[in-house]
Amino acid sequence: MGEGLFRFVFNTLQPRMAQAGTRFYLPTVLTDLTDDGGDRVLPPHADRWQLGTLTGDTGTSVTGLLVSGFNATFGREIKKGQIDPPVTLGQFKGIPTPGQEEPTLDVSDATVDGLQNARLEPELTVTREGAGYRSRVTIAFGTFPDLPQAVTLTGTYRLAQSISIEDTKTKQVTTEHHTAPFDWPTFVAAGSGTFQVSVTDLWADVDWTLTLDGEGQPAVGIDALTVRGAAEDGHPTLTLDQLTPEPNNPYADPSIWKNAATEAFTSAQGQAELVARIQDTLNQPDNRDDLARGLTTNLRSVLDRTVGTASGSASVDDNLFDRFRAAVNDPGSDYYLPAAVFGITSPTLDPYSPDEIDFQVDVLGTPTSVTLTDNRMVGAANALTPAGNLAFDPGVTATALLSTLPDGTEVEVRDPEGRQEDRTLTAPLTLTGTATVTISDQDPFDGPYTVTVSHASVDITLPTSGGSHNALDTLTITCTALAVSADTDDITVDADIGDGFKQVINDQLNQPENKREVLDRVNEEIGDRDFLTRLGATITTNVRAMLTERLDG
User: Cα separation of 326 and 263, whole Å?
Assistant: First the structure.
């Protein structure tokens, strides 16, 4: 395939993946992804996200809120006599537990919703690797206006702070033993609730590979997804939409718990941890495998539908080329070579009408001129290309064998507008017309002639280019060489002219050099630059139409 053709395939499919209603529309592809059990992959869930310890200013602020909130509650408990033996106000207070001063934030039963609103960006990096390729693509989330504009995180949170009871005189954690509504002298104050966070400006770089499986079929592998903002070094934007603490959270008033949790979720550290957990969830092996399996299925479907099937290939490149090799020899394929030749109408190849052909022969020692007019050649469409005769380098170089199918074989031909008709193959390759013979300065005489070529081949070279966009809409196929090859022993000329001179004239026409002259004149004509230019333009039009219909039809 080469990196250029890899990019051609990517550039052709990428805009279709942004068109709603097409089979390639990425939101639909992602929505329909299923796991091994047939369950939908999206939205992904996580049993637990351990966001970890809140440090720095955020940790200090949240700790301050929770410890002060506890002390207010502690004071009320002292007044109510809920501490045994009783203590006085100011005798003890709560402090962050030495060595465990920072609070922790965890999330459970997390759901990441809205990932289906994803657009594949046009940027692509690709390198060869072994029998396949390694690539990086970028996905932007929340881009299609008729779908959710934000990725939504929902779940249950748990905010915890270790608190110890300090003796205000010694400034140390007390060693006295008291009974209290909490574990004296050190305990964990934990509050929980539900939350919803909206994530916008969310992008992801996807590192993936395209290799072959054990059956020689292309397979996608997902190595890693790296979450980021719109800029490569940017960050997504997180907005806390909803936070609802449980009404019976202990040790502090509900407003304290809500303020502390809000601080934790809206802090730069808390948001960075949420983004990191999104990335961790996307990179869970099961999620990556499900995504890879879904993309593999879609890729194979695209190749099967647009080109054809193949298996047992040795590389990704070979798999694609094997599909083409099989398709040009498959009567059910749009690329079937006989149908493709019939489908070329500018210039028409079967039938083909060579210009006037004239050459000199010797009849009974007398210089004689021969002119072939009203020429019509049929049988060029009766051609197949064995796999070994079709090379990609990176264009197409092929040798097609003529007269491989029985005379009269029917072929279904479809033009670029989709109209279909049945055409009939001819065998062998035959050139007919009128032969005019002039012996010396005598009056010319003429009659019909037939040239049959029992065995022949056609060599063709078709360089390809992706054009300015390196995509299907700018695909260009040029023809730089076209020639018919045949052994003169396989060429027979029969001219029905001259009455008594008929045998003598035919003996001359069947001389190897004269048969070669006819073949050379045909090759000279079909090898003309203008002829090849028109042929390349028609092939380009037809191939674009076939691929477009296969992709979009």
Answer: 64
Strand pairing report for 186-200 and 237-245:
antiparallel
CA distance 368 to 217: 63
Q: Where are the beta strands (DSSP E) in 97-150?
A: 104-113, 118-129, 132-141
512 Rama class: left (phi>0) / alpha (psi -120 to 50) / beta = alpha
> Residues with Cβ < 8 Å from 529, sequence gap 6 or more?
none
- Angle at 207 (CA atoms; ends 268, 31), nearest 5 degrees: 80
User: For residue 476, what are the CA distances in angstroms to 245, 466, 469, 536, 540?
Assistant: 63, 6, 11, 8, 6
Q: Tell me the pLDDT band of 311, cut-offs 50, 70 and 90.
A: confident
Under 8 Å between Cβ of 110 and 277: yes
pLDDT band per the 50, 70, 90 thresholds, residue 363: confident
More confident residue, 70 or 441: 70
Distant-in-sequence, close-in-space partners of 422: CB < 8 Å, separation ≥ 6: 410, 411, 412, 413
Task: Break the chain down into helix, strand, coil percent, rounded to 5.
Answer: 30, 35, 35
Q: How far apart are CA 107 and CA 493, in angstroms?
A: 88
CA-closest candidate to residue 462, choices 543, 365, 408, 403: 543
- Rounded to two decimals, what is the model's pTM? 0.85
Residue 37 three-state SS: coil
Contact 328, 341 (CB under 8 A): no
Number of Cβ within 10 Å of residue 182's Cβ equals 20
Are 551 and 12 within 8 A, CB to CB?
yes
Q: 358 near 518, Cβ under 8 Å? A: no
Q: CB atoms < 10 A from the CB of 498, how many?
A: 18
Chain Cα centroid distance, residue 83: 68
Give 348's DSSP letter: B
Question: Residue range 505-533: average pLDDT?
Answer: 94
